[in-house]
Amino acid sequence: MEVTSRNNCMRYKSSEKRTKRYAAEITLDVQFLHQHGISHRDMKLENVLVGSDGHSKIADFGLCKLGRFCHCKVRTQWGTPFCMAPEIVKNKRYGQGIDWWAVGIMIFEMLTGYPPFDYDKGEDTDDDSAQDKLAQKILNDNDDFPEDMSLAAISIVVKLLMKNPAQ
């Protein structure tokens, strides 16, 4: 695990091998939740714990929505700003796809040490204009991948971070 610094915050960057392992476990966890009609709605690395057995466990179900299967959609704006899917930012109806968007954010963050859409350095994150700028980044910016990220990793992140929820 490598320590990086961005926007004056210490971040941890994992190897691709470790990221692949945890991404696979998180994917299985999200599939399980969705098969049981649960949308987490606040998926982020801070809500993934690693047990003493080395396996990941999803935590913090405070914002989850029960009884939501593929065809059900809601509109409430919840979650961590830099992890929000475009449909949440636009205040449109959304389904379980928002959890998959967040998995893409988590994979990117594990590999780089920072999220793909983040506040600018020195910005007050409680400021409304900072929130608006972050929303515009989520809606309009393309993913900026580091040169050392593998094509396989880029491919999965691109597929998970589709701006159009229908895709």
Which tags fit this structure?
alpha+beta, 4 strands, Transferase(Phosphotransferase), domain 1, 38% helix, 10% strand, two-stranded antiparallel ribbon, 167 residues
Give the secondary structure arrangement, pairings included.
Blueprint: E1 2-6, E2 9-13, H1 16-35, E3 48-50, E4 56-58, H2 86-89, H3 97-112, H4 128-140, H5 151-160
Antiparallel strand pairs: 1-2, 3-4
Helix pairs in contact: 1-3, 3-5
Summarize the structure in words.
With 167 residues, the chain is an alpha+beta fold. The chain has one domain: Orthogonal Bundle (Transferase(Phosphotransferase), domain 1). 38% of the residues lie in helices and 10% in strands. It has 5 helices and 4 strands, in the order E-E-H-E-E-H-H-H-H. The strands form 2 sheets. The chain has a two-stranded antiparallel ribbon. It has a two-stranded antiparallel sheet with strand order 3-4. Strand 3 and strand 4 form a beta hairpin. Helix 1 runs antiparallel to helix 3. The radius of gyration is 15 Å and the shape is globular. 25% of the residues are buried. The model has no long low-confidence stretch (mean pLDDT 84).
